Amino acid sequence: MTQIALHLVSSILMFDGGTGTRFWLILISLIVGGGILVAICLGIVQDWIERTRGRNWPTASAVIDLVSVAFIKDNTLSPKADLDDFYYKATLTYTYNNPEQQMGDYSRDFANEDDATAWANSYKGETVKIHVDPRNPTRSVLRKEDL
Fold this sequence. Notes:
Elements: H1 3-14, H2 19-52, E1 59-73, E2 86-97, E3 101-110, H3 113-121, E4 127-132, E5 140-141
Antiparallel strand pairs: 1-2, 1-4, 2-3, 4-5
């Protein structure tokens, strides 16, 4: 719970206003609960979009040419289930020909730098299957299932 919401709830609880206090406490609880529910639903929808994006596009072969790991300091208020307020983003950059040479990337977050580096290095130079947008060959997706 954010400090603002915590401060509001504690102020209401300390105020002895009778039935009006109970109304405001219930109202604030509903608003906070609704916000949490919206955040959970957004996460579920984003995961679904990511899993299904490019699924029916034609496939092509690509080579992972470049791998990198970056330290990311997360200053947002959105909680990450398994990561702290910092994490390591491992990125695989691949190239493919369709009909000209194109480039794309795939990223994954890790809590540990060594895990991120080991994961990224395990794919360097590998050939992978990607999905290419038939309407725009410069757009491609490397799906998690295809790694």
